[in-house]
Design brief:
Length: 514
């Protein structure tokens, strides 16, 4: 069409030129007549062709418009429609005569108006359908009594708020009313809803006769969690811990559950050698004769020792190889000299020997194993990422575990060592976090320690670096039935895996330690 139009223009300008240069000769007149005839024919031909083309194009356009209107109705995107329309026919428009162009534009305006009217109608239809839907739903929940309806709305709103806060339990309850509508339209929705809640709660509490709400159940689930957090946050202040936990029952339950750790194939684990003898006898001790040693042991609450070449008891802290920092702590807490059990146990443990110490309550047994422990840890390579503790102190009760933790911390802080305390009856998450951060020393009760070791597929901590192990109040631990757990822990502890079967470690002769 564009080309035809240009040709037409060219033709007209040529005619004008010819008119201007018109001559009066007969030959010229003949030529002029012939030219003008030819021009007229061309014009007719051009008009005819134009008309045919126009008709075809209009037909095509009508068909296109019809199709486009149907598509657009689906998509409801007027901008796209107009853009496509313009893009497709821009060439046609450029090639049109003014009158045709006006007609065409008029036709298009009408089309657009028609389309807009139709679109508006569709939108109105959709809106009215949506509102019908809403009304239908609302109707399902409408109760005859206005007050009841308000009450239900509040209840429903509360439920939906709780569901976002507390998760699935309530969400399930919230979904019920909709289902109820599908099942039985005649049933009173509020009654059915409340009945459903009661049924669920009765199921949970195992009491079908009592009425209770889902909200109450959730609060009951959350409350202990918060309390646990508080206990653990105040871990440093042991006085804050409320002892409302029956350890005997818990121990029995642990044994009943028979929690054990999976056996470790030690042949597949690389264990590096470690040093455990740090004891250097001072000249003064070396010089003591057997008789002097016996006399001194008698002096120290008549200590009796069993074993081969048992080290001689020490007299001062300086004789057991404690460093200056440890010495300062001993001074700070006025531990002027070793107690009887300390005097004999410390050089024996420092020598790297296994020791069973039996002494009365309050005799200072804790420090007797703590001081050699610090010396031992300080001599080991530092903990690396993913390493578990170097020393583990197992205690039968959480009270004892916390007491030992407190005592150990007096020294650990100045030595730059970390102590973690892990015991049952409180939340496990904080304890896991402590262990994950890394601790050279772990004071724990056996059941909880197994739980922690088993947690997260054994990724929380491990005992592969344990080269110092204490069974504090071992007799009590066994009396409580912890022996299987203790054995289990020993089998996965680096320095003790082969000692599990040694009778002396689990000797039933360990009767009274306090
Ligand atoms: N060498 C020491 N000099 C002075 N006080 C000490 C010494 N060693 C420990 N103590 C203190 O004696 C008290 C009792 O010590 P410890 O708790 O270690 O005794 P225990 O034998 O472990 O008691 P239990 O059997 O109850 O566990 C603690 O307060 C501790 O700080």
């Amino acid at each position: 069409m564009g080309r035809d139009h240009k040709e037409h223009k060219r033709h007209r300008s040529r005619s004008k030129e010819r008119k201007r240069s018109r001559s009066r000769s007969p030959r010229d007149r003949r030529d002029r007549d012939r030219d003008s005839r030819r021009d007229r024919e061309r014009q007719r031909d051009y008009d005819r062709r134009g008309d045919d083309k126009m008709r075809d194009r209009e037909k095509q356009r009508d068909a296109d418009n019809k199709q486009r209107q149907q598509e657009t109705k689906k998509e409801s995107k007027s901008a796209v429609f107009e853009m496509e329309e313009s893009r497709n026919d821009i060439d046609d428009i450029l090639g049109m005569k003014d009158v045709d162009l006006e007609k065409e534009m008029e036709r298009r305006r009408r089309n657009v108006e028609l389309w807009r009217a139709k679109k508006k109608k569709d939108e109105l239809d959709q809106a009215s359908e949506a509102s019908d839907d809403k009304n239908r739903k609302k109707k399902a929940w409408n109760l005859d009594d206005e007050d009841d309806e308000d009450e239900f709305d509040v209840l429903s709103q509360e439920k939906s708020e709780k569901s976002t806060e507390n998760g699935q339990n309530i969400e399930k309850i919230d979904k019920k009313p909709v289902k109820m509508e599908e099942e039985d339209e005649e049933e009173d929705p509020l009654d059915a809803f409340m009945a459903e809640i009661s049924k669920k709660n009765a199921k949970k509490s195992g009491n079908s006769g009592q009425k209770s709400s889902g909200v109450v159940t959730i609060i009951q689930e959350e409350k202990p969690e918060k309390e646990k957090g508080q206990l653990l946050e105040n871990e440093d202040n042991m006085d804050m811990v409320i002892d409302d936990f029956d350890i005997e029952t818990a121990a029995a339950s642990l044994c009943h559950k028979g929690r054990m750790l999976a056996a470790t194939d030690h042949s597949k684990v690389y264990y590096r050698k470690f040093k455990k003898n740090f004891y250097i006898e001072t000249e003064e001790i070396k010089r003591m004769s057997k008789a002097e040693v016996k006399a001194y042991r008698d002096e120290l609450d008549s200590i009796t020792v069993k074993g081969i070449d048992v080290p001689k008891p020490i007299k001062t802290w300086a004789q057991c190889g404690v460093n200056l920092k440890m010495m300062n702590v001993l001074k700070k807490y006025e531990y002027t000299k070793p107690t009887s059990i300390q005097a004999q146990a410390i050089p024996s443990i420092m020598s790297g020997r296994d020791v069973i110490g039996i002494a009365k309550t309050g005799s200072g047994k804790t420090l007797a194993f703590l001081l050699p422990m610090f010396r031992h840890i300080l001599d080991q390579p530092e903990l690396e990422e993913g390493d578990g503790p170097i020393a583990v102190i197992l205690a039968p009760t959480r009270e004892l575990a916390m007491q030992t933790y407190k005592e150990a911390n007096k020294f650990a802080k100045v030595l730059g060592l970390r102590v973690a305390c892990t015991y049952g009856g409180v939340g496990i998450s904080e304890q896991i976090a402590d262990l994950k951060r890394g601790a050279e020393i772990v004071v724990c009760t056996p059941g909880r320690m197994i739980d922690v070791l088993a947690a997260n597929s054994g990724k929380v901590t491990n005992l592969r670096r344990v080269t110092y192990l204490v069974l504090d109040e071992a007799d009590r631990m066994f009396d409580k039935g912890f022996e299987p757990q203790v054995r289990s822990l020993l089998t996965v502890s680096y320095g003790f895996r082969e000692k599990v079967e040694e009778k002396k470690v689990f000797s039933r002769k360990i009767k009274k330690s306090g």
